[in-house]
Design a protein that fits this description.
Distance between the termini: 116 Å
Order of helices and strands: HHHHHHHH
Structural class: mainly alpha
Number of helices: 8
Shape: globular
Oligomer: single chain
């Protein structure tokens, strides 16, 4: 056994030492000396320990990458859920009403805080889709129509604001709306909205104001914990208690 260990140690040292040989053309050149290399049996323990170490390292790297992907996915899902809740919240609904009222009746050509809030939120959601964190199937049916509608409503104000803030202001919102209108894919064709321009913008604004105001009223009713009831009866009752 002692001999075997001694031979294995010698072969290990020989294996680790590269040999560079200068030879004439056509001669074999031996870069690594594998003479006496022990692969099986006594003396091969160092080789298999090294191989096992490499396997462990590769496994840990793969596990780390998998956990990182899962962590990114969980973070993306949490971000998406937060954006959806914010879009449906009382605060954002209030901002949408205020923005639409300003666009419908205001004299300001640029953008106010409510308009920036609505446009910025849609830009955040589009960013998740562009990064691949939202699939077309998840993004299209939920967000494509609001993005198109509010781009159409906000467009004159964004274009005016760009004169001060630069041409890149909310550029991705504009690009996405154009993409939906030009795409031939079924999912985007189904989400396509009629174009909004100067001829029909006020009608769209009136509808947006109505819908979001109704939503605000509903949210207030829910927060007040009032119970919806049917309209009061107006029919007069006869003296005997029957309906007249």
């Amino acid at each position: 056994m002692r001999r075997g260990i001694g031979l294995a140690s010698a072969s290990a040292r020989a294996y680790r030492r590269p040999i560079v040989v200068t030879a004439a053309e056509g001669a074999d050149v031996k870069l690594i000396n594998t003479d006496g290399l022990v692969l099986v049996g006594p003396g091969s323990e160092w080789l298999w320990a090294a191989a096992q170490f490499v396997v462990v390292i590769v496994t840990l790297i793969g596990l780390y990458r998998q956990l990182r992907r899962q962590g990114n996915a969980r973070a993306a899902i949490a971000r998406i859920e937060t954006l959806q809740k914010t879009w449906d919240s009382r605060q954002m609904t209030h901002a949408k009403v205020r923005a639409c009222l300003a666009m419908r009746y205001g004299d300001e050509a640029g953008m106010d805080a409510a308009m920036h809030l609505v446009a910025g939120h849609l830009l955040d959601v589009i960013g998740l889709w562009e990064q691949g964190l939202l699939s077309d199937g998840d993004f299209g049916p939920t967000w494509a129509q609001p993005a198109q509608v509010y781009w159409g409503l906000l467009r004159p104000h964004i274009e005016h604001q760009r004169e001060r803030d630069g041409p890149g202001l909310y550029e991705n919102l504009e690009t996405f709306a154009a993409f939906v209108h030009s795409s031939r894919d079924k999912i985007w064709r189904q989400a396509r909205m009629p174009p909004i321009d100067d001829s029909n913008r006020n009608e769209w604004l009136d509808e947006a104001i109505r819908r979001n105001t109704e939503k605000l009223e509903l949210l207030e009713e829910i927060e007040s914990r009032s119970i919806p009831r049917p309209p009061a009866e107006t029919a007069a009752l006869t003296p005997d208690g029957s309906a007249g």
